[in-house]
Specification:
By secondary structure, the protein is α/β, with parallel strands linked by helices. The protein is 42% helix and 29% strand. Helix 1 packs across helix 2.
């Protein structure tokens, strides 16, 4: 397992899954996302991976953070993104982002890491079916 920390969160990479957990109370803006991208690149290099963005402890995502996420497509080595949020407004906003902003890779909102991992497993199942 590889681990890297930045001021607003922790990044770990294990078994093809990059897990980013934002610290409690952090306001997610474009500067936080830029730091996270730097950490992500250092850990993963050019490896292909699934990504979990755990925003459940963050206090908010700013308009500049939403704009940055929409304007900066993820590189081709990211296979899918699961966004973990709290119930309520954050969950609805994450779901709306994945529908209306149409990210360049599969993106889906979840309330638990278990559900996100199950979703990632569906990509592996599809890959196995296509190979058969």
């Amino acid at each position: 397992m590889k681990t890297n920390q930045f001021t607003e969160g922790l990044v770990t990479f294990n078994d093809g899954i990059l897990h980013i957990v934002y610290h409690e109370g952090v306001i997610l803006d474009e500067h936080v996302f830029m730091k996270q991208i730097e950490c992500r690149k250092r850990i993963t290099g050019d490896q292909s991976f699934f990504m979990i963005l755990d925003m459940s402890q963050a206090s908010d995502i700013s308009e500049s953070g939403l704009a940055f996420a929409a304007e900066n497509p993820h590189p081709g080595n990211v296979r899918a993104i699961a966004v973990i949020t709290r119930k309520g407004q954050d969950y609805i906003r994450a779901k709306l982002y994945s529908v209306f902003d149409q990210p360049n890779i599969p993106t889906k909102a979840f309330l638990s890491e278990e559900d996100a991992l199950h979703w990632f497993g569906s990509f592996e199942s599809e890959k196995s079916k296509k190979a058969a």
